[in-house]
Every structure is written in structure tokens, then in C-alpha cells.
Amino acid sequence: QLQLVESGGGLVQPGGSLRLSCAASGFTFSSYSISWYRQAPGKERELVASIGSRGRIKDYGDALKGRTTISRDKGEKTVYLQIDNLKPEDTAVYYCKVRYYASDYWGQGTQVTVSS
Q: Rounded distance, CA 28 to CA 3, Å?
């Protein structure tokens, strides 16, 4: 059964950093690109970053460009999202997603709250 499980969110002060994790199972991890999205209250879900199956190709959305780094660990079957210099407007639920045989599979999300 394909599964994505996010973790690493929490409450952080402005200017702080977090590393989010997306643990994958139930499919051949090294064969698929994986993306991170976020959704703030009252807003549409938006792309944060994507990483290719081999980790060589990385794309970043405009919202966090310059403050985030996506990476993946084949052995751990995990994709990471490092976010630096967090701002209150980064408060959102962060999700990872994989497109598997033309269907999108999402994790349950991890809440990131940036507040002093």
C-alpha cells in the first residue's frame, strides 16, 4: 500500500528553521519524483518544491524560493524539506505528494506554525 508520512512540523519563532521529512513506502521510491506543497488557512494549496527521482533535478516554487532546500535519501526512502528564515506567512500545513500511475497520492500533512 502506497503511503507518505510527513513529520517535522511544529511551532517555530520567526527567523528559525525546520526540516520536514516525508517517509515513503509501498512503491519504488527511487523511480518517482516527489513534491512538497503547502496550504495556509483560506488559501489554495501551492507548490513549494519538487525533486526528481534521482535527486538531480530540483524545482522550487516562488513562495519559498531562496529559503528552502529539497533533498532525498534513497536508503531511508525519505524526502526532506529544509526551510530557513521562517516567516509568519509560512504558517501552513505542509504536504508531500507523489504521482503514481497518473494518480496523485498525498500524505496527511504536517503543521508548521511560525509565531513569536
A: 11
Whether the predicted pLDDT of 65 surpasses 90: no
Q: What is the mean pLDDT of residues 30-57?
A: 96
What cell was used for 111?
Answer: 503543521
Burial of 95 (0-12, 13-18, 19+ CB in 10 A): buried
- The answer to whether residue 63 scores a pLDDT higher than 90 is no
Nearest by Cα to 24 from 62, 74, 89 = 74
User: What's the Cα-to-Cα distance from 15 to each of 18, 39, 88, rounded to whole Å?
Assistant: 10, 20, 9
Q: For residue 50, give the 3-state DSSP assignment.
A: strand
What is d(CA 113, CA 12) in angstroms, rounded to the nearest whole number?
Answer: 6
One-letter amino acid identity for 42? Answer: G
Task: Report whether 38 contacts 47 (CB < 8 A).
Answer: no
Q: Which residues contact 92 (CB under 8 A, 6 or more apart)?
A: 38, 39, 40, 41, 43, 111, 112
